[in-house]
Amino acid sequence: MRNSLVRKVYLYFVIIIALTLVTVGVTGYWRSSNELENQYEGLLTQIVDNVLHETDLFLKSYERATVSILISPVVKEALDLPRNSTTGFYTSENAMKGVFQPVLINNPEISMTYIIGYNGFQATDFNIHIVPFNYKGFEEYIEQMKEDDDINGNLTIQESGFLDGHLTLIRKLADRTSSKSFKGIMGFELKIGELNTLWKGIKLGKSGYFFIVNDRGRILYHPDQSRIGKQLDGMHFNTVEANKDQIFELPGEPGRVFFSRKSDYSGWTLVASMSVDEQSKPISDLRQTTLLVGIFTLILALFLAYRFGQSIVRPVRLLENGMRQTAKGQWTRVPLTGSRDEMDQLITSYNTMVTRLEELVDRVYETELRNQDNLMKRQLAEFQALQLQINPHFLYNTLEIIICYAVIQKSSEIKDIVRSLSYMLRYSIRTDLEEITVANELKHILYFMSIMKYRNQREFEIDVRISTDYLLDSMVRLTLQPLVENVFKHAFPYGIEDAHTIIIDAWKDEADFYVTVEDNGCGIEAESLLQLNTRFQNSRVDKLLDTQPTFEGSIGLLNVHNRIQMVFGEQYGLSIQSDLGVGTKVTIRMPSSSAKKVMPV
């Protein structure tokens, strides 16, 4: 069975890996080779389109510059002047300087700008100092432009500018009354080197290049500087013109492919070329790499498949043996493989399960023994509860007889003492309520003070400052009276004096309800105060209650603290603040009515 599982895992992995490699390799090579071929064709097309687009945008920016000049009122005024108006010409020519200057400053590649009116007006401005300037040659050049029918109201590009190494951007200025009637010529002399800078940034691989020709076959740009300005071979030019927007080959250029596209704006044709060998080399490299990587990957994958199968089967065998031992009643833990993977996590979970099962079995034995002991204690508690139900009734009846004799003897003191004691006794031993209202606790203190009046042989009033809004809030029964009783015993050890006070107050915050009992007695020493607060903090609801009495009916401060924790939780209870010789303040912390979660008693 073990060998069968190993063979199955290994065989399945071999099939999956081999099938995946063949499918991915063949499909990837076929798709990649096709994509590479399409990519090179698309690359040529994209580069040509981008170059044409950037060139057109570059030239169109100067068309906007001409518009900024044409809309100037100074230009319109100069072109509308009558012929041979010497004074007007002189004034307008000076004004035109202010029109040309912003254009020349914003476009430093413009060497010269000019406006020539048919009325004899002439204005020029330069970005460079030209010495000497051939005015006669310039006038002849302008006359040629006037007679050129290809130049109209749109911006026209002349490859041979008036200045060497420049292009001429020129347009005729139409009359406002007729778009076919012209009143002058405006032109820029643009450095062709700016375009060369733009074109030199285009790369077509190691041996690729492109060149630009105009509509007459003159080369405007070529990586070989010696060919710029020369005429393209006639056969080559005809082939370029006949194969626009498609891949083609040029005669006498073996092993290269070309792509051409003509700009509708400038009329120039851009031709891009790439080597066929350079284009096909990535495909052959891809084929060779695919085969080598496929073979190496297959060998490595087979080795890893064997190792992976063993890494699965070995921990399974360990778990199988451990389970067999555990089934026999021997709590066997399986050692970890050290790989820290899911198999180790599985073994860890198995060991944890075995440990918990062993603990649970031991706990079941302990629980059975504890249940027997608890059953005996429960029977004893039920018997004591029945006895407690009988004894108080006898005591109540006895107290009522004492009250009757006090009435007969007309002793109001005995009647008040016994009646107060009877109420306090009934209130103390009630088992139906653990939580009671603040008002009932204060009433219990009232009866307690009635007894203390006769014991101390003087009246003593407690200053209750609790707001009426809190009288119906809940608190644990028998918590205030032990605190007040503790004040009489410990805060006033030498008797009650007129200066002595006891203040009971209460307040709330967002989650808790606080009740305080404060006195101005002798206070508590710092060491004793620390021990008492530490005892409160370390107490638990499952501790034995402190039952050492401090006065008849009192059950101790720790008893009060533990009962509050049993009802509301361990975060609640008593805390004490005291200064020796100044007084003591005991604070009861309980949850407010809106946030109260009563724990089972």
Automatic annotation (TrEMBL):
PANTHER family for the chain: SENSOR HISTIDINE KINASE YPDA
GO molecular function, one term: kinase activity
The protein's name: histidine kinase
Domain HAMP: 310-362
Top-level class of the enzyme under EC nomenclature: transferase
Keywords: ATP-binding, Cell membrane, Kinase, Membrane, Nucleotide-binding, Phosphoprotein, Transferase, Transmembrane, Transmembrane helix, Two-component regulatory system
TM helices/strands, residue ranges: 9-30
Entries under Pfam families matching the protein: dCache_1 (PF02743), HAMP (PF00672), HATPase_c (PF02518), His_kinase (PF06580)
Every Histidine kinase domain range: 407-594
Keyword Phosphoprotein part of the UniProt annotation: yes
Superkingdom as given in the UniProt entry: Bacteria
Subcellular location, principal: membrane
Entry-linked CDD domains: HAMP, PDC2_MCP_like
Annotated EC: 2.7.13.3
